[in-house]
Design brief:
Strand 1 and strand 2 form a beta hairpin. The chain has 14 helices and nine strands. It has about 350 residues and is α+β, with helices and mostly antiparallel strands.
Length: about 350
Amino acid sequence: MKVNGKRLRALVLFGLLLGASTAPSAHADWVAALSERVARIDAETAGELGVYIKRLGEPAVLDHQAQRAWYLASTIKVPVAIVLLQMVEAGELSLDEELELAATDYVDGAGDLIWQPPGGRYTLGTLLEKMIRNSDSTATDMLIRRIGEDELNRRIKASVAPEGFQPFTTILQVRYDAYGELHPSVRQLSNMDIIRLKTAAPGAERLRALLDRLLVDAKALQAPSIEAAFERYYQRGLNSGTLTAYGRMLERLVSGELLTPTHTRLLLDHMQNITTGSTRIQAGLPAGTDFAQKTGTQIARACNMGIIEPDTDAPVIVTACAEKFDSLRQAEAALARLGQALRDAALLD
């Protein structure tokens, strides 16, 4: 449960929103009702919750801490996919092009490529599918390296999201940067060393494993724990963005502004068939609701972004992140409650 100051701030925010909605507007009703629910969910969940909701074709927007930066975790994989497909449309790449899986490509995280032997060849189309449907981090880094990290960020700013996103890196670089907040010699570790760290239990056991690998004393660490190191990393702003910017990107995607109809459909199909989203917003939506989505998870961070009923005349954009919660289960429960609130709101009618 949050402290009284946090609860009071949420209630004051709702009061302001409610007061602003008193002018006659058929579209403001759902914003007022949902703002109350979102403020309550935030107040009753440890940490912070940010939410952006918009139904296409309407001016009304729900903005609950949506204009501040949030660490986006694996949800960066959607803009990576958009840039990849834009390059395909420009004739610069082909989804049939093959990349060879190298031993240096492996990254800890979801997906099955980490378990495949090196030397296998995978098309860009297959890597795209794995990146979105299975949140495969090895596939993601292979695609980012093919695009080029600098080129990826340049194209995102030029044609995907002109503002609101901070620079994106490879998933492996996230590990080096975050663990590097503990000790500079982390940069000497191989990608397989990083993967072995993940096999240790979170917390003190993983920290001991890192100390053993680096051959340094705990007194030499620049942060007291892995959790503290990741918090320091998040403050750098890498792989972060506003929920508003992410929501506008999804709006442009579903409206056909970013990709051709064929590639828009391809990406939305992948997003509608992800394997990682059943315990978050989707858990609160009516059974059978189409939800093209992407999740992201990191230490004390969880996000869920998507488009509800993308094939209808009025799809609903929702972007949400939670941070500094006590447990991932708690964050997922808050996101599921957000799904329930969306289910009960008039905007899904």
